Amino acid sequence: MCLSYFWSIDKDMTLKAIPKESTLFLIPLGFFLMKPFSDGQKQKLLAFFSYAMVGYALYYLFKALIRFIISKDFDVFFYHGEYDLDSGLVPKALNAIHVSVFAGVGYFYFLKTELKTVLNKVFLILLFVFIILLSSKNITLVFFLLNLIYFFFYSKSANKMRLRNLIVLSFILGLVLSFSKIKERFLVEFQTNTTNSISSNVIKNIPEGVHNVSIYEAWNNEKFTPNDFFPGTAFRVYQARLFFDFLAEEPIFWSGFGLNASYLKLEDKGKDYNVFLGSKEHEGYQKKNFHNQYIQVFAELGVFAFILLIFILFINTKNAFKSKDFTHIAFAILMISLFLTESFLWRQRGVVFFTLFYCLFNFQKNSNLIKTQTR
Questions:
Q1: How wide is the angle at C-alpha 177 spanned by C-alphas 175 and 85, nearest 5°?
Q2: Over pLDDT 70: what percentage of the chain?
Q3: Are strands 211-212 and 228-229 parallel, antiparallel or unpaired?
Q4: Phi, psi (5° rounding) for residue 93?
Q5: Other CB atoms closer than 10 Å to residue 81's CB: what's the count?
Q6: Do the Cβ atoms of 330 and 112 come closer than 8 Å?
Q7: What are 88-106's pLDDT values in tens digits?
Q8: CB contact set of 256 (below 8 Å; sequence gap of 6+)
Q9: For helices 293-301 and 303-323, what crossing angle results, to 10°?
Q10: 8-23 burial, b if ≥16 CB within 10 A, otherwise e?
Q11: Which end of the chain is more exposed for a tag (fewer CB within 10 A), N or C?
């Protein structure tokens, strides 16, 4: 990241981004200099984090309840606000997808706790409801997948009661999807992606005359119009398309554009494709990042950084399954899936969260290995 300053196409943006990313170096350095955490200390740290997430969940649910009493608007219980900071369950600046991941780690800590007190069960249910209401499609699907993996392979009743666990989880999934707001967020994806010519009035809460872009259109249309609306998946396909355009047109394979320097190119491409460029009320598509960590790294730092990122995630996942610590497994899988839809490490809270938990889960294992070898 630091070296990319010397070839960056936007040196000011790269220089401003480097301090934000410095925790990738400083946190591992801190772990290296400190005494290794014992298993007991690690579990205490995870417990403190999980209880803190319960506190956040209670705060935002209570806040949403007060706003609902005032406004009678059920939208305050779901996702984050699109434009108004107080129109969703959490502010848009926090990002519901990121908060879902934070809460997910806390949830799986309580789930794998062997001695579940009544209070712990209440916290588990609270975080479950909070994650569902945040209604990130990607994280919700991965969340249910992780619950299936836990109940079928890691819980005490895994071998004896798999059929019961399947019935219970199927019932919960059906109940969750029965909520109209959550179901609507999934339908936006599936309805607009099953056909090339779906009419916009099928989807609720979209202004009349706005066309919902399908995945096919996002990848193939030569031009768009300001009336074209990109659902989440279609937008990420469009951004991936821009990356492959850059790869063919620009010399970025080895070095990339430079840290945080792709915005100029994305904005120019947005104008070329004639996507909605924004208004006084709404921001445009051309000013957003790639919304994919793998592509973001490749486009800005080149192929070697991309390989390094894959290697980092591979080591984390390998250690997670080897340790059989389900909180670590959940963290590993959540990160892999999150990086497909978010440039998580390009946000300060994202890089701090990822680096801290990566070191907490993986440094312990290496230090134990060193102790064994010295003995």
A1: 115
A2: 81
A3: parallel
A4: -60, -30
A5: 18
A6: no
A7: 888 888 888 999 999 999 9
A8: 4, 262, 297, 298, 299, 300, 301, 302, 305
A9: 140
A10: bbbeebbeebeebbeb
A11: C
> What token pair was written down for 187?
């339908």
Beta-carbon contacts of 117 under 8 Å, excluding residues fewer than 6 positions away, are none
pLDDT one-digit tens code per residue, 32-42: 999 889 889 99
* pLDDT score of 43 more than 80: yes
Residues contacting residue 87 through CB under 8 Å, at least 6 positions apart: 75, 76, 81
Task: With cut-offs at 50, 70 and 90, classify the pLDDT of residue 210.
Answer: confident
Backbone dihedral angles phi then psi of residue 262, each to the nearest 5 degrees:
-85, -10
**CB 92 within 8 Å of CB 80:** yes
Length of the chain: 375
For residue 159, pLDDT over 70 is answered with: no
What the block records as the tokens of 269 is: 């491409």
Residue 101 carries which side chain, given as an amino acid letter? V
Question: Are 340 and 141 in contact, with CB atoms under 8 Å apart?
Answer: no
**Sequential DSSP letters for 180-198:** HHHHHHHHHHHHHHS-SS-
Contacts of 8 (CB under 8 A, 6+ apart): 14, 257, 258, 259, 261
Q: How far is CA 188 from CA 197, 234, 283, 328, in A?
A: 14, 10, 20, 32
Share of the chain above pLDDT 90, in %: 58
**Residue 80, beta-bridge partner list:** 90
CB 281 within 8 A of CB 331: no
Coil, helix or strand for 284?
coil
List residues bridging with 90 in a β-sheet: 80
Tokens of 34: 């400190």
The conformational region for residue 239 under phi > 0 = left, psi -120 to 50 = alpha, else beta, is alpha
The mean of the pLDDT values for the chain is 85
Question: What's the predicted TM-score (pTM) here?
Answer: 0.85
> Could you give the CA distance from residue 343 to residue 323 in angstroms, rounded to a whole number?
28
CB atoms within 10 A of CB 247: 14
Q: Which amino acid is at 112?
A: K
